[in-house]
Amino acid sequence: MVAFVGDRKDSIFQAVSQMYTDVASCPSRQFHFPTGRPACLFVGYPKEQLDAIPETAVESFAGVGYPFSVGAIKNGDRVLDIGSGSGTDVLIASAFVGPRGKVYGLDMTDAMLSKARANAEKMGTPHVEFVKGNAEKIPLPDASVDIVTSNGVLNLVPDKPKAFSEIFRVLRPGGRIQIADIVLGKPIKAESRNNPQLWAECIVGAVLEEEYLELFRAAGFKDAKVIGELDYFSKSPEADTREVAAKYGAKTVVIKGSKPS
Q1: 43 within 8 A of 248, measured Cβ to Cβ
Q2: What pLDDT was estimated at residue 191?
Q3: What confidence score (pLDDT) does residue 123 get?
Q4: pLDDT for 154-180, tens place per residue?
Q5: What is the pLDDT of residue 12?
Q6: Is pLDDT above 70 for 3?
Q7: Which of 43, 108, 144, 159 has the highest count of CB atoms within 10 angstroms of its CB?
Q8: Cβ neighbours for 81, distance < 8 A, ≥ 6 positions apart
Q9: How confident is the model over 108-130, as pLDDT tens digits?
Q10: Which of 159, 206, 137 is nearest to 3 (CA)?
């Protein structure tokens, strides 16, 4: 199981934060993974959902799938988006929950938080709140949300068992998950996992698909299952990234599940 501590964990967080600071600040720059509106359309977002939110949210999108395909969110729900970035999924979720609901966006990158807050203000969504933090220590009370959503983030977390335990903790009994993330078909070499910069590139921090599902089971979820998958890195603009992803069978999966009630 992948779980780093101390200085190495801090280095991973710093590398990830720098990468997504660049995505927030320089959305027109080419990255090794798909970004922006073309990435949204590729992974499955309907055009009308993108048109309903500010373009400044869409331009810094760096997710890997379409977690809303799970259909978990209902009117009036309280939702937490882990790794909310520029706010794309938070703002889409805010329309699903309506004014009676609440959506929290959790992110550790100051540039993304600033951009997301500005996007929420543009859209006029008083039931949206962005908070700083990371998945290993979620700053919300126990059993405080109905839904946890996340898009391409948990593969970047050094201590995955802790993060999955935190997701279980903040969900109310009967609460649901909708997760899009990167998993592997073959294990990554240890020396690659020890490189913080490579973690920020969305492949070496990922784990095998069955191991990913086992993280949910170990945290307490009983029915987590994959409902869709996508060859995400086929759209990478860099040949080296496409080659590495193919070598390790890296792909997107969309997962649904619930906390026992």
Answers
A1: no
A2: 60
A3: 97
A4: 999 999 999 999 999 999 999 999 999
A5: 79
A6: no
A7: 43
A8: 89, 90, 93, 103, 104, 105, 106, 148, 149, 150, 151
A9: 999 999 999 999 999 999 999 99
A10: 159
Quick one: three-class SS letters along the chain? CCCCCHHHHHHHHHHHHHHHHHHHHCCCCCCCCCCHHHHHHHHCCCHHHHHCCCHHHHCCCCCCCCHHHHCCCCCCCEEEEECCCCCHHHHHHHHHHCCCCEEEEEECCHHHHHHHHHHHHHHCCCCEEEEECECCECCCCCCCEEEEEEECCHHHCCCHHHHHHHHHHHEEEEEEEEEEEEEECCCCCHHHHCCHHHHCCCCCCCCEHHHHHHHHHHHCCCCCEEEEEECHHHHCCCHHHHHHHHHHCCEEEEEEEECCC
- The whole-number pLDDT of residue 167 equals 98
Q: Which CATH class is domain 6-258?
A: alpha beta
Q: How many CB atoms lie within 10 A of CB 194?
A: 14
Whose tokens are 């992803």? That residue is 245
Query: How many CB atoms are closer than 10 A to CB 185?
Result: 12
Please state whether beta strands 102-107 and 128-132 pair in parallel, antiparallel, or not at all (unpaired): parallel
Whether the CB-CB separation of 116 and 124 falls below 8 Å is answered with no
- Tokens read off for 40: 């949204």
Q: Judge whether residue 135 has pLDDT over 90.
A: yes
CA dist 79 and 21 (Å) reads 24
Residue among 76, 185, 200, 56 at smallest CA distance from 121: 56
Q: How many residues does the chain have?
A: 261
d(CA 22, CA 175): 34
